[in-house]
Amino acid sequence: MIYNVHKFRFVSALSRGSKEAGWLISTAVVLLPTALIWIAWGFMNAVVVLLHLAAFWIMAAFFQWALQKYRKKPFQRHYAGIAAVLVTVIYLTVGFIQANHVWQTDYTVTTAKPVGSLRVALLADSHVGTTFDGEGLAAHLARIQEQKPDVVVIDGDFVDEGTSKADMVAASRALGQLHAPYGVYYVFGNHDKGRYANGQRGYDGDDLMAELQKNGVTVLQDQSVLIDHRFYLVGRQDASEEKDFGGSRASISDLTKNLDKDKYTIVLDHQPSDYDAEAAASVDLVLSGHTHGGQMIPMVQLMRWFHIGEDNVYGLERRGNTDFIVTSGISDWAMKFKTGTRSEYVIIDIQGK
């Protein structure tokens, strides 16, 4: 990057022929904006900006080289660098909007079971403090409330290691303002308990659960609940209990073996990584988050093509008699950009007998 910046005319003009001054100016042009992004938005976002600028610069340099070969005459200006900067700014501005604005995504699923008409609001991966704080969540919840859901489900990563206790309390309080006939339900994600931070954020999973319960939210941990004799909600412990923390979680077959198979069953499972077992258990609908919809190009495509880590990266899929929905999440973890997807909450209309 420093080498390519050194090719700009303004560097030679400012350095007045001094090689040392030229390289110092080039270095400053690269490092100072990077440092400012790091200070304002954190290390991860500084890396994201630099990687995109480098990638676009490589592509632009290739096109400039090819055009020079075609026209058999070198360009007088460093157009590759100008194009790379402009494309990066435009591209990541769109990515910033897609991450920080929240869209509504609608699905309709049908069933032969006697559940009637049921509207479910799903949100996941709010990672409070990344693109909005605890108070900011309330504005998004107001939009969800306007859709008049019968039940609201929070599918993990409500907070993460960087969420302050004040924001956690404010966000939990915002959930307490929701009014749904069948209530608000929550399952843990891999970040909620703050284990990756080794207890440094000032509260743990039990503190979070207590705050949620104080605001009328029902926390499900490998538990099921029959609602209005119409449908079951099954809330699973997150897969990270087994994969990352040496613990365990109940199998979906154990969680559903005593349930009435004639009633509609909705499973909340933060990570979309147990599809075969969930389809074999004949549950009707599985709701997940965790993937952030792939977050960035080309991760979206790589995750979809090769099923990296998960069974699905985004959207609605049906296996056997089971519908699976993965949301891209209402916010982000660490990054303030989404180039391969966009932030959302989900409204699901279930149509049964």
Automatic annotation (TrEMBL):
Spans traversing the lipid bilayer: 21-41, 47-67, 79-97
Sorted keywords for this record are: Membrane, Transmembrane, Transmembrane helix
Superkingdom of origin organism: Bacteria
Organism, as annotated: Megasphaera massiliensis
Official protein name in the record: Metallophosphoesterase
Q: Which Pfam families match?
A: Metallophos
Q: Does the keyword Transmembrane helix apply?
A: yes
UniProt domain Calcineurin-like phosphoesterase: residue ranges: 118-293
